[in-house]
Amino acid sequence: MNRGVEEERARIPMSQRPEWADIRPVPQYDGPNPVVPIAYTDEFSETMDYFRAVYLADERSPRALQLTKEAIFLNSGNYTVWQFRRLILDALNVDLHEELHFVDQITKDNSKNYQIWRWVAEKLGTQIASKELEFTREIFSQDAKNYHAWSHRQWVLQALGGWENELAYCDELLEDDIFNNSAWNQRYFVVTRSPLLGGLEVMRDSEVAFAIKAILAKPENESPWRYLHGLYKNDVNSLVNDPRVASVCLDVLLDKRDCVHALNMVLDLLSHHHQPSNELKDAVDAVSPDPKPSDSNFAERVCSILQLVDPIRASYWRWRKTSIPAQD
Amino acid sequence: MAELMTEKHVKYILSVEKKKDDFESVVMEHLRVNGAYWGLTTLDILGKLDAVDQDEVVSWIMQCQHESGGFGGNIGHDPHILYTLSAIQVLALFDKIDVLDVENVANYIASLQNEDGSFSGDMWGEIDTRFSYIAICSLALLHRLDKINVERAVKYIVSCKNLDGGFGCTPGAESHAGQIFCCVGALAITGSLHHVDKDLLGWWLCERQVKSGGLNGRPEKLPDVCYSWWVLSSLIMIDRVHWIDKGKLVNFILDCQDKENGGISDRPDDAVDVFHTYFGVAGLSLLEFPGLKAIDPAYALPVDVGYKKVELNQILTLSNGHGKFCGT
């Protein structure tokens, strides 16, 4: 459970706190025969009973604010408590920098409450962009693929700015884990949307080099192969005509390392009328398990090989074979 | 093939184990309406919905409704679009949608649409394509899609399409199977699937299948039973389900059962919960496992539910009210 500082103190039941003596707690009503019966701890039940009382009375006081904090420590996912806390903060005109610190503490343990962040962040304006980015960075140090945190980080960049170091941050994450698809997605986000970088056209060449380096390091990694396609969006002929692409396929196949993605890329190239070198054809045939397929058409042969090396998707590769355009 | 422990799963759902300090139960309190949908739909698929007192459930659900028309996660909780869909779905299971003041609920949902066509989850403004799906599915079940600007809703969803053919929660966000289900489902219900590159997305989706036969939700993540629903239903909606190895997936799901106590977990040997039990059983239904009721991949309700599926000609009729429409 999320407790923070409270953890050290023994909890005094609400019924024994003099400052709450005037309140009659309101119990939860789940209906007479609950379909999904919930077991509550005594502490949780009591806190929520008192919360319900102040909520129904719409009491927006300092003690109510403190109570929402206790309720949030017990269950930070409870929407109604957060919403009421927001109303109290507005009513009491509380310093939101302190609130940011509190939310920081809670969200570290339950990283799905980002809309709470946004409400506070928007009120405080652009000055806190770097703090927000630092916050998500800390989340990523524990869970580098946290979907909600990535969504939040993208919102921060677009609403509050702070693009300066984003590409470098992607570099860092990919160095930690080249398989991190979220980081690859973020890289694409930065390259295409950062107001500081000049856009995809300008960045393409160096990004292709980056992707190829990643592929050579771990050819079984799905992400850089897709990234490569993404760099040539709406311009697949440039992909086909970039000699580096056919070249990396050849390098991977010659090395006889996991080759499904390389074979798939070869197939994509062939589907757009790339003329394969003999070297490439030989390399493809060499990675085929026995019995080696005998399709005379090279593209069809690639599909047959893919059915052998990626049998779980045999049905997909069979379909690819039927949709190969007529060869020149 | 291993056995589906139907009786044990029914028993598990009907009486969730009551441990006093069960943290899982405590944190579930605020989303019991979702829990009811997961539990009851599972029972219906297993042919055991009559094990539940329909009137009790309907009465409890209606008490979760807020005066705004939306539903909270439990009695006395603030409304959110997440719980509103689950409430409508539960009523649909019992063929009791007519107990609703449809106008009231539909207005609540419609009020959450933003200028750009996106939907917020509640009055506090978080935007996510999950909410687009929820709004569209809810209103379709209520036969009130005319309450929103469908064309703009579709436009926003399409703006969340990525180069890999997948969809994220907001424009630029990483493709994620859960978000893809939401976007594809929403496009299916509104007759807008022509916006999906089915071959490209179909490949991304079938790449989710890992060696064990299970499905992950993004590249390089672990397989999880819930993706048996999100990936699978998406594949079915775009007519590409034959691209995965169905037999291996069935075995993976069956391996995730707790054969002693009932229930299904995210992956073999982990703790079970209602959420994964639903997705496992629903996935098996989509895979046409014997003895299960068929489930609709877009509405996530058994196909014999009376209020589902606004007829296609009705969608076209609605479109005239908004002028331009994308057609089928």
Automatic annotation (TrEMBL), chain A:
In the record, what lineage is assigned to the organism producing the protein?
Answer: Eukaryota, Viridiplantae, Streptophyta, Embryophyta, Tracheophyta
The keyword Lipoprotein is assigned to this record: no
Write the record's keywords in alphabetical order, separated by commas: Magnesium, Prenyltransferase, Repeat, Transferase
Task: Specify whether Repeat is a keyword of the entry.
Answer: yes
Q: What's the family?
A: Belongs to the protein prenyltransferase subunit alpha family.
Question: Do you know which Gene3D superfamilies this protein is assigned to?
Answer: Protein prenylyltransferase
- A Pfam family of the record is PPTA
What organism does the UniProt record list as the source?
Sesamum indicum
Task: Please state what the protein is called.
Answer: Protein farnesyltransferase/geranylgeranyltransferase type-1 subunit alpha
Any one Gene Ontology MF annotation carried by this entry is: protein farnesyltransferase activity
Q: Name the coenzymes or cofactors required.
A: Mg(2+)
A GO cellular component entry from the record: CAAX-protein geranylgeranyltransferase complex
What does the function comment of this entry state?
Essential subunit of both the farnesyltransferase and the geranylgeranyltransferase complex. Contributes to the transfer of a farnesyl or geranylgeranyl moiety from farnesyl or geranylgeranyl diphosphate to a cysteine at the fourth position from the C-terminus of several proteins having the C-terminal sequence Cys-aliphatic-aliphatic-X.
Reactions the enzyme catalyzes: geranylgeranyl diphosphate + L-cysteinyl-[protein] = S-geranylgeranyl-L-cysteinyl-[protein] + diphosphate; L-cysteinyl-[protein] + (2E,6E)-farnesyl diphosphate = S-(2E,6E)-farnesyl-L-cysteinyl-[protein] + diphosphate
Q: Tell me the PROSITE patterns matching this sequence.
A: PFTA
* Known EC number: 2.5.1.58, 2.5.1.59
Automatic annotation (TrEMBL), chain B:
A GO biological process of this protein is: gametophyte development
Subunit annotation = Heterotrimer composed of the alpha subunit RGTA, the beta subunit RGTB and REP; within this trimer, RGTA and RGTB form the catalytic component, while REP mediates peptide substrate binding.
**In this protein, which residues make up the domain named Prenyltransferase alpha-alpha toroid?**
4-300
Q: Which cofactor does it need?
A: Zn(2+)
Q: Which GO terms describe its cellular component?
A: Rab-protein geranylgeranyltransferase complex
Catalytic activity, reaction form? geranylgeranyl diphosphate + L-cysteinyl-[protein] = S-geranylgeranyl-L-cysteinyl-[protein] + diphosphate
Q: Which PANTHER family match?
A: GERANYLGERANYL TRANSFERASE TYPE BETA SUBUNIT (PTHR11774), GERANYLGERANYL TRANSFERASE TYPE-2 SUBUNIT BETA (PTHR11774:SF11)
UniProt keyword annotations, A-Z: Metal-binding, Prenyltransferase, Repeat, Transferase, Zinc
UniProt gene name: LOC105158431
**What does the protein in this record do?**
Required for male fertility and root tip growth. Catalyzes the transfer of a geranylgeranyl moiety from geranylgeranyl diphosphate to both cysteines of proteins with the C-terminal sequence -XXCC, -XCXC and -CCXX.
The text of the family note is: Belongs to the protein prenyltransferase subunit beta family.
Out of the domains of life, which is the source?
Answer: Eukaryota
Matching Gene3D superfamilies, A to Z? 1.50.10.20
Q: How and how many cofactors are bound, per the record note?
A: Binds 1 zinc ion per subunit.
Quote one Gene Ontology molecular function term: metal ion binding
**EC number(s) reported in the record:** 2.5.1.60
Designated name of the protein? Geranylgeranyl transferase type-2 subunit beta
